[in-house]
Input
Amino acid sequence: MSANRLARLRATLDRRQPDLRVLLDGVHKPHNVSAILRTCDAVGVYQAHAVVGGGRLDIHRHCAAGAGQWIRTLTHDHVTGAIAAARGDGLRVYAAHASDEAVDFREVDYTAPCAVLMGAELWGVSRVAADQADGHIVVPMAGLVESLNVSVAAAVILFEAQRQRQAAGCYDAPRLDPDCYRRTLFEWLHPRIAEHCRAQGVDYPAIDDEGDPIRSRSTDTS
Output
């Protein structure tokens, strides 16, 4: 394990924000999903949720630039499950939705636990999602088109969240739970061994100072 790689992965985890999430309500085009996950990685989002309606989440490798493996992405059959998961962890849900109640996205306090809900590019967020969200936000448009591409809109909103959180010092110290930090670091360093451990129902082994696993019989994949 390269010392530089280990240090880079630790530095990335040190900046992950467990209470800033993205919810994708029917965003199905692989290039859009991939671009959003790439932005999630850039601003330190730890977890994303995607509503796939019983299908599968497709990620475009070129657009994602590898970000898919660094963002914990959970799938749901219905948007209510994604919203419930966020609410269960104490997050407010803000839907990008042009309603009469919508406010400029910059008026929201993203330093508080929150999730940004984005809808499909053609239809926007579903009515159920709009009704269940805690608030609606919009990106003001000064031109003739009514809205941005969904991945661009997500990037604009998330970088505003990053700006606010940087000013508040949210990136200055690790914020992940220690056990979550340890498990995620191991999965990033040793995905095959992590998969083997999950299949066997055993915990991940500890790692040494170089990031190598302290092996036991349960983690021997040879």
